[in-house]
C-alpha cells in the first residue's frame, strides 16, 4: 500500500460555517455574519456594500449547526469514524472581536482549548486554519480590510496569540484558507469593497501582498514558538485544461494556471515568480513594498502545500467560446463535455485530482495535504434516520483511487481531510441543502430543524477506508 502508516485521514470544517453562537461569549461580527442565503448571498458577495446596508431575513452563520455547543458530540462521531486529524479554523472575531484590540477575548480562547482537549481525548490531531474567510467586520469598516497594510499587524497579533496559546495542542497550522480566492471573491478573501473607477487588480494584488507578508510572519512566529510545528499554505486548486489542442488555447491555460499558482509560488519559494513582472505590467499593477518585505518572504516559507480540490477547469483563447463560461466553485469555467457535474454544476473529474497533485509536486517538491474534497448534494433522510448516499461514496471512492495513484506516481502526501465531514452551511450559497457530510444535520435553508445528528451510509464506508488505510475503498 503506497500510503504511509501515519497517513492523516480526517475531515474539515470552517468556524463561520459550523459554529453558530455568532455573538456569544464576547464574539464580534465577521463579514460572513452579514451574508444571507441563496441568490441574495451571491449578490452580497459580489456587491458587498449591499451586505453592509441591507437587512436580510436569514443569516445562516448566526446559528449554523451549533458546533459551538455540540462540539463534544461531533468530535465523538469523528473519533468513531477513526479520524486521525480534524481540520477546523479559529474564528478571528471570537478572539479579537473588532480585530484591533490589544487584549484577546479569553472566553473565545477557552472555547478552542476545550475543542483541542476533546480532540486529544480521542487521539485526533487538529489541523488549524488561522484565517478562513472570517475577517472581523470591524477591520473592514474601520480600515478597509486587507487594502490597508495595518492588517498585517492585526493578523500577526492574532496569529501570535493563538500559536502561543495552543503550543503543544496544535502541531499543524495553515495561514490562510484558499488564498487565491482574493482574485475571485475579494470580499470573502480579504474584506475588500472595490470602488468604481479604481484599478481592481491593483487593489487585489496589493492586498494579496500584505497577506503574503503576514503569512510569512506567522510562519516565522510558529517556528519560534515550537520548531516542531508544521505550517502550510492553502490553495483553491484544480488544473485548468485548454479547450482544444490549438496552441493559443494551450497558452491561455498556462497563463491561467500561473495566476492560480502565483500565491503558492511566493509562499513556497519565497519570492515573486518571474512571470509576475509581465502580469503586473499588463494589469497596471505596481506593488507598494516596504524595505524588508522581500527578505521576510524569502526567509519564512511554508513546510507543506495544502489545497482544496473539487474539479478541474477549462478555458479557451477564443472570447466567443469563453462567453459560455459558467461559475464552478467561484471560478468561471467552460463545460467539459467529457465530465458529469453535481447538482450545483461543479464538474466531477477524479483524474484531475491526480493531474493537480502531480503538477503541485513537480512544481514545489514539498509535501502535499488534501484539506478539502467532497461532493455537495441534496440528501434525503429516510425512515431509518439515515441517508443512502451511494453517489457520495462513488464520488469519494473515485477521487481516493486517483489520490493513491498520484502517490504511486511519487507524490509525497501527508493526509486527506474531506470537506464538510458533517453537514454545514455552504460558503458560496449559504444553503444547508447542499450537503457534504458523512453526518446528516437536521437543519434546512431557513434555519429550521432540531440540529440532531444522524449517520449517513457514507459514515461507515469512510470508517472502513480509514481502518484499512485506503486499501478498502
UniProtKB/TrEMBL annotation:
Positions of the catalytic residues: 372 (nucleophile)
One BP annotation, GO: carbohydrate catabolic process
Record-linked SUPFAM superfamilies: (Trans)glycosidases
UniProt keyword Hydrolase present: yes
Domain of life: Bacteria
Its EC number(s): 3.2.1.86
Keywords assigned: Glycosidase, Hydrolase
UniProt cross-references to InterPro entries, sorted A to Z: GH (IPR017853), GH_1_N_CS (IPR033132), Glyco_hydro_1 (IPR001360), Glyco_hydro_1_AS (IPR018120)
GO CC list: cytosol
Hydrolase keyword on record: yes
Single GO MF descriptor: 6-phospho-beta-glucosidase activity
Top enzyme category: hydrolase
Family to which the UniProt record says this protein belongs: Belongs to the glycosyl hydrolase 1 family.
Protein's UniProt name: 6-phospho-beta-glucosidase
Species of origin: Salipaludibacillus agaradhaerens (Bacillus agaradhaerens)
Organismal lineage: Bacteria, Bacillati, Bacillota, Bacilli, Bacillales
Gene: ascB
Amino acid at each position: 500500500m503506497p500510503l504511509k502508516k501515519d497517513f492523516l485521514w480526517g475531515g474539515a470544517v470552517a468556524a463561520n460555517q459550523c459554529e453558530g453562537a455568532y455573538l456569544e461569549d464576547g464574539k464580534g461580527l465577521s463579514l460572513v455574519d452579514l451574508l444571507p442565503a441563496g441568490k441574495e448571498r451571491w449578490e452580497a458577495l459580489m456587491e458587498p456594500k449591499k451586505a453592509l446596508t441591507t437587512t436580510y431575513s436569514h443569516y445562516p452563520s448566526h446559528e449554523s449547526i451549533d458546533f459551538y455547543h455540540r462540539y463534544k458530540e461531533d468530535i465523538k462521531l469523528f473519533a468513531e469514524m477513526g479520524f486521525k486529524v480534524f481540520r477546523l479554523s479559529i474564528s478571528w472575531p471570537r478572539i479579537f472581536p473588532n480585530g484591533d484590540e490589544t487584549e484577546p477575548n479569553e472566553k473565545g480562547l477557552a472555547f478552542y482549548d476545550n475543542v483541542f482537549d476533546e480532540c486529544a481525548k480521542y487521539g485526533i490531531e487538529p489541523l488549524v486554519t488561522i484565517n478562513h474567510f472570517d475577517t472581523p467586520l470591524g477591520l473592514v469598516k474601520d480600515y478597509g480590510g486587507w487594502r490597508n497594510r495595518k492588517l498585517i499587524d492585526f493578523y500577526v497579533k492574532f496569529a501570535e496569540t493563538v500559536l502561543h496559546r495552543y503550543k503543544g495542542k496544535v502541531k499543524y497550522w495553515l495561514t490562510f484558507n484558499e488564498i487565491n480566492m482574493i482574485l475571485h471573491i475579494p470580499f470573502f478573501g480579504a474584506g475588500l469593497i472595490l470602488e468604481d473607477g479604481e484599478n481592481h487588480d491593483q487593489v487585489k494584488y496589493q492586498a494579496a501582498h500584505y497577506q503574503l507578508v503576514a503569512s510569512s510572519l506567522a510562519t516565522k512566529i510558529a517556528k519560534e514558538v515550537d520548531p516542531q510545528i508544521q505550517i502550510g499554505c492553502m490553495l483553491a486548486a484544480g488544473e485548468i485544461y485548454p479547450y482544444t489542442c490549438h496552441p493559443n488555447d494551450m497558452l491561455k491555460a498556462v497563463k491561467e494556471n500561473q495566476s492560480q499558482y502565483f500565491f503558492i509560488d511566493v509562499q513556497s519559494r519565497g519570492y515573486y515568480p518571474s512571470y509576475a513582472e509581465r502580469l503586473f505590467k499588463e494589469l497596471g499593477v505596481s506593488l507598494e513594498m516596504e524595505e524588508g518585505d522581500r527578505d521576510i518572504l524569502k526567509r519564512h516559507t511554508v513546510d507543506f502545500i495544502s489545497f482544496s480540490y473539487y474539479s478541474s477547469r477549462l478555458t479557451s483563447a477564443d472570447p466567443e467560446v469563453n462567453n459560455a463560461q459558467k461559475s464552478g466553485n467561484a471560478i468561471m469555467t467552460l463545460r467539459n463535455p467529457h465530465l458529469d457535474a453535481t447538482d450545483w454544476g461543479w464538474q466531477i473529474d477524479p483524474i484531475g485530482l491526480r493531474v493537480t497533485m502531480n503538477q503541485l509536486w513537480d512544481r514545489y517538491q514539498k509535501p502535499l495535504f488534501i484539506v478539502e474534497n467532497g461532493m455537495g448534494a441534496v440528501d434525503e433522510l429516510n425512515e431509518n434516520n439515515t441517508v443512502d448516499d451511494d453517489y457520495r461514496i462513488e464520488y469519494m471512492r473515485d477521487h481516493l483511487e486517483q489520490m493513491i495513484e498520484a502517490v504511486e506516481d511519487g507524490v509525497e502526501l501527508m493526509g486527506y481531510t474531506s470537506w464538510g465531514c458533517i453537514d454545514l452551511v455552504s460558503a458560496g450559497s449559504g444553503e444547508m441543502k447542499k450537503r457534504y457530510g458523512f453526518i446528516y444535520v437536521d437543519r434546512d435553508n431557513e434555519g429550521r430543524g432540531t440540529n440532531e445528528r444522524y449517520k449517513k451510509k457514507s459514515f461507515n464506508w469512510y470508517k472502513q477506508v480509514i481502518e484499512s488505510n485506503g486499501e478498502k475503498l
